[in-house]
Amino acid sequence: MPKDAIGILIDLARRGEIDPWDIDVVQLTDRFLHSLSRLDSADLPRSGQAIFYASVLVHMKAEILEGRMLEPSPLEADLDESDLTAAGLPGVALERLIRRRPAVPAIVERPLTLNDLIAHLREVEQIERRSARERPSERRTLIKGPPVRTMAEVEHLAHQEDLEALVSELWQVLTSRGVRAFEVLLEHYRDRVGAFLGLLFLAHRDRVVLEQAEFYRDIEIYAVNQPEDAPGGGALPQSPPAQP
Protein backbone atom coordinates (compact mmCIF):
# COMPACT_ATOMS: atom_id res chain seq x y z
CA MET A 1 0.00 0.00 0.00
CA PRO A 2 1.33 3.51 -0.81
CA LYS A 3 2.94 5.36 2.07
CA ASP A 4 2.37 8.95 0.95
CA ALA A 5 -0.60 11.13 0.03
CA ILE A 6 0.04 11.25 -3.74
CA GLY A 7 0.58 7.49 -3.78
CA ILE A 8 -2.79 6.97 -2.08
CA LEU A 9 -4.56 9.04 -4.75
CA ILE A 10 -2.84 7.17 -7.59
CA ASP A 11 -3.58 3.82 -5.95
CA LEU A 12 -7.28 4.69 -5.66
CA ALA A 13 -7.33 5.41 -9.41
CA ARG A 14 -5.45 2.22 -10.29
CA ARG A 15 -7.90 0.14 -8.26
CA GLY A 16 -10.84 1.76 -10.02
CA GLU A 17 -12.23 3.36 -6.86
CA ILE A 18 -12.15 6.81 -8.47
CA ASP A 19 -12.35 7.99 -12.08
CA PRO A 20 -9.04 9.79 -12.79
CA TRP A 21 -10.66 11.78 -15.61
CA ASP A 22 -13.70 12.97 -13.66
CA ILE A 23 -13.03 13.14 -9.91
CA ASP A 24 -15.99 13.05 -7.52
CA VAL A 25 -14.46 15.05 -4.65
CA VAL A 26 -17.07 13.93 -2.11
CA GLN A 27 -16.47 10.25 -2.86
CA LEU A 28 -12.70 10.73 -3.08
CA THR A 29 -12.53 12.44 0.32
CA ASP A 30 -14.26 9.55 2.08
CA ARG A 31 -12.03 6.95 0.42
CA PHE A 32 -8.86 8.97 1.04
CA LEU A 33 -9.68 9.20 4.76
CA HIS A 34 -10.32 5.45 4.86
CA SER A 35 -6.98 4.75 3.16
CA LEU A 36 -5.21 7.22 5.45
CA SER A 37 -6.36 5.32 8.53
CA ARG A 38 -4.85 2.10 7.10
CA LEU A 39 -1.32 3.41 6.46
CA ASP A 40 1.11 1.10 8.22
CA SER A 41 4.39 2.96 7.83
CA ALA A 42 5.42 6.51 7.00
CA ASP A 43 7.77 9.04 8.43
CA LEU A 44 6.59 12.32 9.92
CA PRO A 45 6.80 14.43 6.72
CA ARG A 46 4.67 11.93 4.81
CA SER A 47 2.17 11.65 7.63
CA GLY A 48 1.93 15.42 7.92
CA GLN A 49 1.43 15.81 4.17
CA ALA A 50 -1.29 13.15 4.09
CA ILE A 51 -3.16 14.79 6.97
CA PHE A 52 -2.81 18.23 5.35
CA TYR A 53 -4.17 16.89 2.05
CA ALA A 54 -7.04 15.32 4.01
CA SER A 55 -7.89 18.73 5.50
CA VAL A 56 -7.90 20.32 2.03
CA LEU A 57 -10.15 17.57 0.66
CA VAL A 58 -12.53 17.91 3.63
CA HIS A 59 -12.75 21.65 2.90
CA MET A 60 -13.45 21.01 -0.80
CA LYS A 61 -16.09 18.41 0.10
CA ALA A 62 -17.77 20.87 2.48
CA GLU A 63 -17.89 23.56 -0.21
CA ILE A 64 -19.43 21.15 -2.71
CA LEU A 65 -22.06 19.91 -0.26
CA GLU A 66 -22.85 23.49 0.75
CA GLY A 67 -23.23 24.43 -2.90
CA ARG A 68 -25.68 21.58 -3.43
CA MET A 69 -27.71 22.67 -0.40
CA LEU A 70 -27.85 26.25 -1.66
CA GLU A 71 -28.98 25.37 -5.18
CA PRO A 72 -32.42 26.95 -5.71
CA SER A 73 -35.35 24.60 -6.06
CA PRO A 74 -37.20 24.51 -9.43
CA LEU A 75 -39.98 26.62 -7.86
CA GLU A 76 -37.51 29.28 -6.75
CA ALA A 77 -35.75 29.22 -10.11
CA ASP A 78 -39.02 29.85 -12.00
CA LEU A 79 -40.21 32.56 -9.59
CA ASP A 80 -39.53 36.11 -10.73
CA GLU A 81 -40.56 39.58 -9.65
CA SER A 82 -43.32 39.89 -12.26
CA ASP A 83 -45.03 36.75 -10.93
CA LEU A 84 -45.08 38.13 -7.39
CA THR A 85 -46.26 41.56 -8.50
CA ALA A 86 -49.05 40.01 -10.56
CA ALA A 87 -50.13 38.12 -7.49
CA GLY A 88 -50.65 41.38 -5.63
CA LEU A 89 -47.33 41.51 -3.79
CA PRO A 90 -45.50 44.83 -4.09
CA GLY A 91 -42.12 44.66 -5.75
CA VAL A 92 -40.48 46.63 -2.96
CA ALA A 93 -41.21 43.76 -0.56
CA LEU A 94 -39.24 41.19 -2.55
CA GLU A 95 -36.14 41.58 -0.41
CA ARG A 96 -38.19 40.60 2.62
CA LEU A 97 -39.97 37.72 0.90
CA ILE A 98 -37.04 36.03 -0.77
CA ARG A 99 -34.11 34.92 1.33
CA ARG A 100 -30.90 35.96 -0.35
CA ARG A 101 -28.60 33.02 -0.85
CA PRO A 102 -24.86 33.67 -0.64
CA ALA A 103 -22.98 33.10 -3.83
CA VAL A 104 -20.99 29.88 -3.59
CA PRO A 105 -18.26 29.75 -6.22
CA ALA A 106 -18.13 26.53 -8.14
CA ILE A 107 -15.05 24.57 -7.14
CA VAL A 108 -14.97 22.75 -10.45
CA GLU A 109 -16.42 24.21 -13.66
CA ARG A 110 -15.28 21.27 -15.79
CA PRO A 111 -14.47 17.61 -15.10
CA LEU A 112 -11.69 17.51 -12.50
CA THR A 113 -8.88 15.13 -13.45
CA LEU A 114 -6.51 13.44 -11.04
CA ASN A 115 -3.61 15.50 -12.43
CA ASP A 116 -5.58 18.71 -11.82
CA LEU A 117 -6.34 17.67 -8.25
CA ILE A 118 -2.74 16.73 -7.45
CA ALA A 119 -1.49 20.02 -8.93
CA HIS A 120 -4.03 21.93 -6.83
CA LEU A 121 -3.08 20.09 -3.63
CA ARG A 122 0.63 20.75 -4.22
CA GLU A 123 -0.03 24.42 -4.90
CA VAL A 124 -2.06 24.77 -1.68
CA GLU A 125 0.71 22.95 0.21
CA GLN A 126 3.34 25.39 -1.08
CA ILE A 127 1.18 28.37 -0.12
CA GLU A 128 0.67 26.94 3.37
CA ARG A 129 4.42 26.42 3.80
CA ARG A 130 5.14 30.02 2.84
CA SER A 131 2.40 31.22 5.16
CA ALA A 132 3.73 29.08 8.01
CA ARG A 133 7.21 30.58 7.63
CA GLU A 134 5.74 34.07 7.82
CA ARG A 135 3.60 33.39 10.91
CA PRO A 136 5.20 34.14 14.29
CA SER A 137 5.69 31.10 16.47
CA GLU A 138 3.18 30.67 19.29
CA ARG A 139 3.90 29.26 22.73
CA ARG A 140 1.25 27.04 24.29
CA THR A 141 1.02 25.18 27.55
CA LEU A 142 1.06 21.51 26.63
CA ILE A 143 -1.18 19.55 28.92
CA LYS A 144 -1.63 15.94 27.95
CA GLY A 145 -1.98 13.40 25.18
CA PRO A 146 0.65 11.04 23.71
CA PRO A 147 2.22 12.42 20.53
CA VAL A 148 1.58 10.48 17.31
CA ARG A 149 4.79 10.61 15.27
CA THR A 150 4.24 8.13 12.43
CA MET A 151 1.35 6.41 10.69
CA ALA A 152 2.89 3.12 11.86
CA GLU A 153 2.22 4.29 15.40
CA VAL A 154 -1.34 5.16 14.40
CA GLU A 155 -1.89 1.60 13.19
CA HIS A 156 -0.29 0.25 16.37
CA LEU A 157 -2.54 2.45 18.49
CA ALA A 158 -5.57 1.17 16.64
CA HIS A 159 -4.61 -2.46 17.38
CA GLN A 160 -3.99 -1.64 21.04
CA GLU A 161 -7.30 0.24 21.28
CA ASP A 162 -5.36 3.33 22.30
CA LEU A 163 -6.81 5.11 19.28
CA GLU A 164 -10.28 4.50 20.69
CA ALA A 165 -9.08 6.03 23.95
CA LEU A 166 -7.82 9.07 22.02
CA VAL A 167 -11.16 9.42 20.20
CA SER A 168 -13.06 8.97 23.46
CA GLU A 169 -10.93 11.63 25.18
CA LEU A 170 -11.45 14.11 22.36
CA TRP A 171 -15.20 13.42 22.35
CA GLN A 172 -15.34 14.04 26.11
CA VAL A 173 -13.52 17.37 25.72
CA LEU A 174 -15.78 18.44 22.85
CA THR A 175 -19.03 17.62 24.64
CA SER A 176 -18.18 18.50 28.23
CA ARG A 177 -16.26 21.71 27.58
CA GLY A 178 -18.24 22.90 24.59
CA VAL A 179 -15.15 23.24 22.40
CA ARG A 180 -16.05 24.63 18.97
CA ALA A 181 -12.65 25.50 17.45
CA PHE A 182 -9.58 23.40 16.71
CA GLU A 183 -7.18 25.93 18.25
CA VAL A 184 -9.24 25.88 21.45
CA LEU A 185 -9.15 22.08 21.44
CA LEU A 186 -5.34 22.26 21.45
CA GLU A 187 -5.52 24.06 24.79
CA HIS A 188 -6.84 20.80 26.27
CA TYR A 189 -4.92 18.27 24.13
CA ARG A 190 -1.18 18.57 23.56
CA ASP A 191 -0.63 16.87 20.19
CA ARG A 192 -1.85 18.70 17.08
CA VAL A 193 -1.49 15.71 14.73
CA GLY A 194 -3.14 13.30 17.15
CA ALA A 195 -6.00 15.73 17.81
CA PHE A 196 -6.65 16.27 14.10
CA LEU A 197 -6.47 12.56 13.37
CA GLY A 198 -9.00 11.90 16.13
CA LEU A 199 -11.31 14.53 14.64
CA LEU A 200 -11.06 12.84 11.23
CA PHE A 201 -12.15 9.56 12.81
CA LEU A 202 -15.06 11.31 14.55
CA ALA A 203 -16.07 12.99 11.28
CA HIS A 204 -15.84 9.66 9.45
CA ARG A 205 -18.24 8.21 12.05
CA ASP A 206 -20.63 11.16 11.58
CA ARG A 207 -20.19 12.32 15.18
CA VAL A 208 -18.74 15.74 14.36
CA VAL A 209 -19.01 18.15 11.45
CA LEU A 210 -15.83 20.03 10.52
CA GLU A 211 -16.11 23.39 8.79
CA GLN A 212 -13.50 25.85 7.56
CA ALA A 213 -14.67 29.20 6.15
CA GLU A 214 -11.42 29.73 4.23
CA PHE A 215 -8.17 27.89 3.67
CA TYR A 216 -5.67 28.34 6.52
CA ARG A 217 -8.40 29.61 8.86
CA ASP A 218 -9.43 27.90 12.07
CA ILE A 219 -11.40 24.67 11.81
CA GLU A 220 -14.84 24.89 13.43
CA ILE A 221 -16.08 21.74 15.19
CA TYR A 222 -19.76 20.85 15.66
CA ALA A 223 -20.62 17.78 17.72
CA VAL A 224 -23.54 15.70 16.43
CA ASN A 225 -25.52 14.62 19.48
CA GLN A 226 -27.49 11.39 19.33
CA PRO A 227 -30.29 10.10 21.60
CA GLU A 228 -28.16 7.29 23.03
CA ASP A 229 -25.55 9.72 24.33
CA ALA A 230 -25.27 10.08 28.08
CA PRO A 231 -26.51 13.38 29.57
CA GLY A 232 -22.92 14.56 29.92
CA GLY A 233 -22.30 13.91 26.24
CA GLY A 234 -19.47 11.49 26.91
CA ALA A 235 -20.69 8.43 25.03
CA LEU A 236 -17.96 7.01 22.81
CA PRO A 237 -18.92 6.96 19.11
CA GLN A 238 -18.42 3.42 17.88
CA SER A 239 -16.68 2.62 14.62
CA PRO A 240 -18.76 1.09 11.83
CA PRO A 241 -18.47 -2.69 11.32
CA ALA A 242 -15.71 -3.78 8.97
CA GLN A 243 -16.76 -4.57 5.43
CA PRO A 244 -16.23 -8.18 4.37
Description:
The protein is mainly alpha-helical. It has 2 domains: 1-72 and 81-135, no CATH class; 143-227, Arc Repressor Mutant, subunit A (Orthogonal Bundle), CATH 1.10.10. The protein contains 11 helices and 2 strands. It has helices at 5-14, 25-37, 44-69, 74-78, 81-86, 94-97, 114-134, 151-159, 162-177, 182-185, 192-204, and strands at residues 208-211, 220-223. Strands 1-2 form a two-stranded antiparallel ribbon. Strand 1 (208-211) and strand 2 form a beta hairpin. Helix 1 (5-14) packs across helix 2 (25-37), helix 2 (25-37) packs antiparallel against helix 3 and helix 9 (162-177) crosses helix 11. The radius of gyration is 21 Å and the shape is globular. The two termini are 19 Å apart. The model is unreliable at 41-45, 83-108, 138-144, 157-161 and 227-244 (pLDDT under 50).
